[in-house]
Amino acid sequence: MIEKEVKEQNSIPTSKVERSTQFVKTGFKIGGNYVKHYSKKLFNPNLSKDELNEENAADIYESLSKLKGSALKVAQMLSMDKNILPKAYVDKFSLSQYNAPPLSGPLIVQTFHKLYGKTPDQIFDKFDLKSSNAASIGQVHQAELHGKKLAVKIQYPGVGDSISSDLKLVKPFAFRLLGMSEKELNIYMNEVEERLLEETDYELELKRSIEFSKACSVLNNIVFPTYYPELSTKRTITMDWLEGKHLKEYLQTNPSQEERNIIGQALWDFYNFQQHELRAVHADPHPGNFMITPDGKLGVIDFGCIKVLPDDFYNPFFSLSSNGFFESKEKTLKAFRELEMIQPNDTPAQIEFYHEVYCQMITLFAKPYTSNTFDFSENAFFDKLYKFGEMLSKMPEFKQVRGVKHFIYVNRTNFGLYNILHELKAIVQTDTYVPQLSLQD
Amino acid sequence: METKEKLQEAYIKYVLTNGEQPKTVFIFAKENDMPEEEFYNHFTSFESMEISIWAGLMNTTVAEVKAQEVWGQYTSREKALSLFYSFIELLKGKRSFAIFSLKKAPGSIGNKKLLQGLKSKFEVFSAEIIQEGIESGELMDRPFFANKYKDALWIQFGFVLNFWLKDTSPGFDKTDQAIEKGVNVTYNLFQRSPLDELLDYGKFLAKNTNVKMPF
What is the pLDDT of residues B188-204, one digit of tens each? Predict the structure, then answer.
């Protein structure tokens, strides 16, 4: 009888087993896609690899979106860095920013029962059991109370537990997709895991949302929802419902240059105010976290991911982007060393090499900061960025880890910001909030 | 409260405080100020009493879920989910008794005599929502197999109950996940699948071409 019970236990689709099967399926499908591709290629040698990439991306996305939670988050992160992924991957992964299969209505009721001791109907005047959209580790429902439209974000149960196991499962795919070494990937994964675990802490998110939206209320053309702590719990957050469109829908309405500039400027100010005044930044600039309201303002709806910038990172990092900094090679090398971009056991020849490549890279990346205004519609700038990224990814010198872990989220934030501004084709005044460096030699 | 329910409650209380069944019906009856015959008017033994307690839990759950305002809008799948969640929620208040009662009853969870009463209530409910699902087109009406859907749901119920007994996660969150995934998997099997399309195509070919099917 005991044996039988054990067997029954095994038959339950416990998270990891089921998740693994999901990935195994993907593996098979991708294998199949390659077979399909090469058999087609036998007859048509001109067939481009794009089609294959497209099929692979669709299958990977399908599997990731079934997993939800942290795997979905990784999909979102990957989709931010257009420079390392072929275009087909990017398009498919971007889908994850908008859609994920929803939780069942009864589970929502059950979750409410646990958290509030009441059903949704008993708390709100109206509550829509069908979720309006996914929020990567949760989903958003529309509700109404005292004539006010509210958004209730509900976290998927068990997300916290599954993060570590999910990331382990994503690893082999990340290896293949990104071609990173294990050590490199571990630094990346640990930092991601840390941020993700923070993101599952809705009490922390609520606290931060209130703090950040208050601190950022001095900025123009940005709106934040009001948060309701008394209607929030450790797995739900209740806030005002913001009317508006997501970036892609907004762009389909053909907004004028002036309108796009306003949104772009608001985004720029939002990020640079946080980086330089608050020293902590909303590190999740994927388009799903923003709305454009009917009166043409930027709505920010998610403060789950905050990256705090410690002084020992902030000072060397932003001093690099200040004008004329590279004139002193000594100072530059000191900053590179502090940021571990140049490491203690590097040979003089390596130091020379990295110094030169990094100077080129930073000059390129910091270009928007070097003038008062910058036109983000400029394709040439982005082409150069992507090309540079591609070149780096092919250099054996950059196969191993370089740089402190803080780079991951700070780079993602700034690169994400650039990408959104590029999509907006906005012209932005870039000297509104500038680095405040404590002077030191 | 009726004598029957009073006796059930007194029995549960006894088991919870003493960690065992009362030694004899006589002692139990005496403690509840009644002659032994009176007990037999309601139950034939402690075992039959436990069977009726479990059946009662399922009855209460069914009545509870059906009383929900949103019930009418639920699909068959959601109704099944709702029943599973509510049953486990109800059972939480009686976890110690549930563990005691299930552990000492012989047989695997799906076949326990102890759960026979509960099972028949469960099957009536399942048959009802499955029929609804078939009528609305949500579920696939397969000859012969459709009658077995309720058995598949019962197996799933056994899994979930077993999972919950061993669940140590705070708030039994893992059980919620087991229900969500398990019931969805089961229901996906009830829906129209590529296999149905294939059979359908095969039938079409067999009728409309001279090709002899290889099976």
Answer: 888 888 888 888 888 88
